[in-house]
Amino acid sequence: SQQGEEDPQALSIQEGENATMNCSYKTSINNLQWYRQNSGRGLVHLILIRSNEREKHSGRLRVTLDTSKKSSSLLITASRAADTASYFCATKENYGQNFVFGPGTRLSVLP
Amino acid sequence: GAGVSQSPSNKVTEKGKDVELRCDPISGHTALYWYRQSLGQGLEFLIYFQGNSAPDKSGLPSDRFSAERTGGSVSTLTIQRTQQEDSAVYLCASSLLGQGDYGYTFGSGTRLTVV
After folding, report:
1. Which of A88, A31, A38 is nearest to A56 (CA)?
2. In 10 A of CB B52, how many CB atoms?
3. Best mutation site among B56, B104, B108 for testing chain A: the one with the most A CBs within 10 Å?
4. Rounded distance, CA A71 to CA A21, Å?
5. At a CB cut-off of 8 Å and minimum separation 6, what does B29 contact?
6. How many contacts (CB atoms, under 8 Å) link A and B?
7. Over the stretch B80-108, which tens digit does the pLDDT of each residue have?
C-alpha cells in the first residue's frame, strides 16, 4: 500500500481562492516532499520539510508537518489557473533509500 | 545537461517485443531512480542506483524488467517480452545525494504503450 495518501483526490476551486491538500503517512520519516505534475509527465519538486520542522514557506506555498499525527498539508494561497496540476507528497522512511509517493491530488483552478 | 533527459518520449510497441528506455541524469548526480506511473495513479518505485553500489532492485515487478547504469551516468531500463500491463509512463529522476535530502529532479518521462 502507499506510504503517503493525499486527500482529497480531486479539488476544484476558483482563481484567487486558497487550496489545501493533505497527506498522511504510516511510518517514521526522515523528510517529506511535495511535487507538482502537469499533464502526466515529469514531476517538479516544490518543497521539502524535514522531520524536525513544523512549517515551511516558499512563495505562495505553505507546508506544515505534524509528526505526531503523521500528516502534512500543502496550502497554495491566491491560486492561479496555472496552478492546475496533480500534487503528490513523497515520504522517505528513516532507513529507506527511495521515496514513496501517494496517489496525488488533482487540483483544478477555474479562471 | 541542465536537466534529466529521457528518451524516447513516446514508445508504442507490440506485445512480446523488448523495449529499452534511456535516462541521462544531471551531471554529477550520484543517485538515479526509475519510477513507473500508470494512468491516474501515483508513482511506483522500480529501481535505485547510488554510485558504485549494488542497485536496489526491490521494486522491479518481474524478471522481465532490468536496468543498468554505465559509468555512473546514463541508465537504461529494459523490458523484455512486453505485456499490455506494462503500459505506463516511466519516469527517471536523479539527486545530488543518495539520501534525496535535496529532492529529486525528474525527467519528462517515456510514455510506453503496448498494443
Report:
1. A31
2. 8
3. B104
4. 11
5. B94, B95, B96, B105
6. 61
7. 999 999 999 999 999 886 555 667 899 99
